[in-house]
């Protein structure tokens, strides 16, 4: 089978809710990433066969095929199509899988996998909230309710369930959260994000440039302390989840360029990594966030690998119990996980997080001279994607 190679990977620095990226229309923000991928690869934009773009809240400014709209707002020609993907938090990781599959099948040679989410301008849960307000019903159908005895699917409750199932205390969650900030601080101050972050001019509420540039993940709390994290109010009495041990609301756009071996040679491109394996699974939608555990086990088995073969892991920090349960179940090395911080510190721009994690993983492998990387993330509805890459 043909191979699929990553030749470019970029992301914006994360923006806090109503923060430094909130002045950007998400379509225009995504267009900046598309432009950067083409410019950094130094290819004719017309060489791009397709754009797959993840986005969860596809309503308002992110509606009507945000991927195609981003192409039309970019320097790519009109001949480049685009399609939007919603696999919840794994949307742009799925974009990577679709792009790699298109290249490996021989159907396409140059594909961009990307993601965008403006959680400031299109708040989380907007599609459901607006639909219910307009009297258009609710996504959980009578048949779904019958099958699951009327249980309301909730990622928050799933996080509480995982913490209980794997015996994780609030102190463990809070200590992990502090570690995420500490690793993010260290990475930011050491300049390790420099090559992966695309500087974006900050715009005001009217969309006008301010002359200032956004280059540092806005969610990192450089003054984070364990005491401060521990004092954040519980989201449920008797529970263990707080806003401090969960991912941060975030604005951002991210993307990777994936090409065939034919394009690699014809266009004179240098590969950063090769897509080695891809797995997707469905799992229990009630506990919901546990899917990365069996998904990783399946991926390693199919790839003929052991967890110790992997040099670095990116496991999305939707809630602290997720990576901690993953480490426990896989008997994985905690020194290898989210080495530059995760979503608790850097933010979780929903549909953009898949290619955000992939961008950080590709660059981290290169900086550390490591070979194998594994990325996984929990997804609404009880699903997970796993991607194993080989640095070249």
UniProtKB/TrEMBL annotation:
Enzyme class: transferase
Key words of the record: Acyltransferase, Transferase
GO molecular function: acetyl-CoA C-acyltransferase activity
InterPro entries, per the entry: Thiolase (IPR002155), Thiolase-like (IPR016039), Thiolase_C (IPR020617), Thiolase_CS (IPR020613), Thiolase_N (IPR020616)
Active site: 89, 348, 378
Pfam families linked: Thiolase_C, Thiolase_N
Keyword Acyltransferase appears in the UniProt entry: yes
Family to which the UniProt record says this protein belongs: Belongs to the thiolase-like superfamily. Thiolase family.
Full protein name: Acetyl-CoA C-acyltransferase
């Amino acid at each position: 089978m043909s191979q699929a190679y990553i030749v470019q990977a970029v992301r914006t620095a994360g923006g806090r809710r109503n923060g430094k990226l909130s002045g950007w229309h998400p379509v225009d923000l995504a267009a900046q990433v598309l432009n950067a991928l083409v410019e950094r690869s130094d290819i004719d934009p017309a060489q791009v066969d397709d754009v797959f773009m993840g986005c969860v809240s596809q309503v308002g400014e992110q509606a009507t095929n945000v991927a195609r709209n981003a192409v039309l707002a970019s320097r790519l020609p009109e001949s480049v199509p685009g399609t939007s993907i919603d696999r919840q938090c794994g949307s742009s990781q799925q974009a990577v899988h679709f792009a790699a599959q298109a290249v490996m099948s021989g159907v396409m040679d140059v594909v961009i996998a990307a993601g965008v989410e403006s959680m400031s301008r299109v708040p989380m849960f907007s599609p459901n909230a607006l639909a219910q307000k307009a009297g258009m019903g609710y996504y959980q159908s009578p048949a779904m309710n019958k099958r699951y005895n009327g249980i309301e699917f909730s990622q928050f409750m799933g996080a509480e369930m995982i913490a209980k199932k794997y015996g994780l205390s609030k102190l463990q969650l809070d200590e992990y959260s502090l570690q995420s900030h500490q690793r993010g601080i260290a990475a930011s101050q050491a300049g390790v994000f420099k090559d992966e972050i695309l500087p974006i001019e900050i715009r005001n509420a009217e969309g006008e440039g301010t002359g200032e540039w956004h280059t540092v993940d806005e969610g990192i709390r450089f003054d984070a302390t364990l005491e401060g994290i521990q004092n954040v109010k519980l989201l449920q009495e008797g529970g263990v989840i707080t806003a401090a041990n969960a991912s941060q609301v975030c604005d951002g756009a991210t993307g990777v360029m994936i090409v065939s071996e034919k394009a690699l040679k014809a266009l004179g491109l240098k590969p950063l990594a090769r897509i080695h394996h891809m797995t997707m699974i469905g799992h229990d939608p009630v506990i919901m966030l546990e899917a990365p555990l069996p998904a990783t086990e399946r991926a390693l088995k199919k790839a003929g690998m052991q967890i110790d073969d992997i040099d670095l892991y990116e496991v999305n920090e939707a809630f602290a119990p997720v990576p901690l349960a993953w480490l426990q179940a896989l008997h994985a090395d905690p020194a290898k996980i989210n080495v530059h911080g995760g979503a608790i510190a850097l933010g979780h721009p929903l549909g953009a997080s898949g290619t955000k994690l992939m961008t950080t993983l590709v660059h981290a492998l290169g900086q550390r001279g490591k070979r194998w990387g594994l990325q996984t993330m929990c997804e609404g509805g009880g699903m997970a994607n796993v991607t194993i890459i080989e640095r070249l």
